[in-house]
């Protein structure tokens, strides 16, 4: 029988997870996905992909093996109060995507005895290109199931839970950070002669290529950069101008501020 997955909180991330699970044949034949939100009509379109859409959290949880909690951190208390009567530690593996919400925070609401996993995926799950960090727990059998699910949505890395906030910033917020780079590069491309669409295509595919060079080889970025910077050429001139204006520093500082913000989310 298929593994029953309930995604509670069908917002930006919840729908990305559902879409990714429906998208690959392997995952869609293994997982039976139900997704909930109060305004369920906004995500009815997911039914076309074979996903069950409902407002009924308790019905979704009653059927589920894996329960993914994907509401905003301030919404978790109401959600758990709703599903608590049907939560069963013998049946359910709880998986939280919530930034800044600890296992202890969740246990306080659910009561003890549940395998609870903190995971940090990103919105690229929608196209099975997510990076998902999974927090280690002592629940090894359940951990395999959690990793298997997120492997079907992209790459996974098992980490100590004290790195969850760092994973949030680097991996989950990281999607926005890289997209802003692509937008800026596109704008630069327009200034030097391309139409917006052409500039975006060139910037996006180039970003993908740069990332793939590293993922393929495990090389340090600077190793690949050295291959592009022809002596006295235009690449090194551009790179150094970007650095004079604080490119690396801006990224590092942004990541640190983002990290400090997580503590204040709840
Ligand atoms: N967006 C991202 O890239 C990432 C987000 N996260 C984390 O995932 C969580 C979700 O983020 P995101 O998707 O951006 O947030 P959204 O606000 O887009 O999604 C939350 C969804 O939860 C629904 N919801 C709220 N209360 C309930 C309830 N009681 N029952 C059912 N559904 C409910 C809301 O819909 P409605 O009002 O209709 O009920 C809303 O669609 C957050 O905790 C965030 O920290 C983690 C990694 C990446
Ligand atoms: O911005 C946020 O708080 C959430 C967590 C990671 C991505 N989005």
From TrEMBL:
Residue numbers binding NADPH: 57
Top EC class, one word: oxidoreductase
Source species: Fodinibius roseus
Molecular-function GO terms, alphabetical: pyrroline-5-carboxylate reductase activity
Name recorded for this polypeptide: Pyrroline-5-carboxylate reductase
Job description of the protein: Catalyzes the reduction of 1-pyrroline-5-carboxylate (PCA) to L-proline.
Alphabetic keyword roster: Amino-acid biosynthesis, Cytoplasm, NADP, Oxidoreductase, Proline biosynthesis
Catalytic activity annotation: L-proline + NAD(+) = (S)-1-pyrroline-5-carboxylate + NADH + 2 H(+); L-proline + NADP(+) = (S)-1-pyrroline-5-carboxylate + NADPH + 2 H(+)
Gene expressing this chain: proC
Residues that bind NADP(+): 8-13
Cross-referenced HAMAP family: P5C_reductase (MF_01925)
SUPFAM superfamilies per the UniProt record, alphabetical: 6-phosphogluconate dehydrogenase C-terminal domain-like, NAD(P)-binding Rossmann-fold domains
């Amino acid at each position: 029988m298929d593994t029953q997955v309930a995604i509670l909180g069908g917002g930006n991330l919840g729908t990305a997870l559902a879409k990714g699970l429906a998208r690959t044949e392997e995952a869609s034949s293994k997982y039976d996905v139900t997704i909930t939100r109060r305004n369920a009509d906004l995500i009815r379109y997911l039914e076309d992909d074979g996903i069950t859409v409902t407002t009924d959290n308790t019905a979704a949880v009653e059927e589920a093996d894996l329960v993914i909690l994907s509401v905003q951190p301030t919404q978790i208390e109401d959600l758990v109060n709703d599903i608590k009567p049907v939560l069963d530690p013998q049946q359910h593996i709880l998986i939280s995507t919530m930034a800044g919400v600890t296992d202890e925070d969740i246990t306080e609401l659910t009561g003890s005895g549940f395998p609870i996993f903190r995971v940090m995926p990103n919105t690229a799950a929608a196209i099975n290109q997510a990076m998902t960090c999974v927090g280690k727990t002592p629940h090894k059998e359940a951990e395999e199931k959690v990793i298997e699910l997120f492997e079907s949505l992209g790459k996974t890395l098992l980490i100590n839970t004290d790195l969850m906030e760092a994973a949030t910033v680097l991996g989950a917020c990281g999607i926005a950070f890289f997209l802003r780079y692509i937008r800026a590069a596109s704008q630069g491309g327009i200034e030097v002669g391309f139409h917006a669409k052409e500039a975006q295509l060139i910037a996006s595919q180039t970003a993908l290529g740069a990332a793939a060079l590293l993922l393929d080889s495990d090389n340090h970025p600077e190793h690949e950069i050295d291959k592009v910077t022809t002596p006295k050429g235009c690449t090194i001139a551009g790179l150094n101008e970007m650095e004079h204006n604080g490119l690396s520093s801006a990224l590092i500082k942004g990541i640190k501020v983002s990290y400090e913000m997580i503590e204040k989310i709840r």
